[in-house]
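Supplementary Methods S3. Complex input for the zinc ion-bound model.
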Amino acid sequence: MKNNTITLTEQLYQQLCNHAKNCLPNEACGLISGNGNFVKSVFHLPNTSSSINRFYIKEQHVAKALHQISEKNEEVLAIYHTHPSSQATPSTSDLVNHPTSDVKMMILSLKQQPYPIQCYQVNHLSYTPISIVIKEGGISLCHNVES
Ligand SMILES: [Zn+2]
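Predicted complex, serialized as structure tokens:
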């Protein structure tokens, strides 16, 4: 679904921020799922590259998360990762490695407080910002996917 707004609950935003801080100095990453443009779940996935400026997610972790997402009747909306010390804009390697234009890219920056979060529609090496609405309340879930 191609729409220009994505809605995230305040609760999930806080969980993303906490997970991001726990992963420092490395980048944190994972999958964001929901229905339509409404984010319902966040899956924290291990960053197997353990890097301060790269992330790599193992296929088995993606498969596990995809399975849980389909069991919840949700769809993958975005792949998220953090930028521990730079702005929430995609790097060249982020664009090159983004697997599909069907899924958006979400970046949380820890460069300043409150942590800026941005979402993008990525088409090959170009990207368009998508606005994010952070809503108070709501029910949303956060999962840790381990090996
Ligand atoms: Zn990045």
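The longest strand covers residues 126-135. The radius of gyration is 14 Å.
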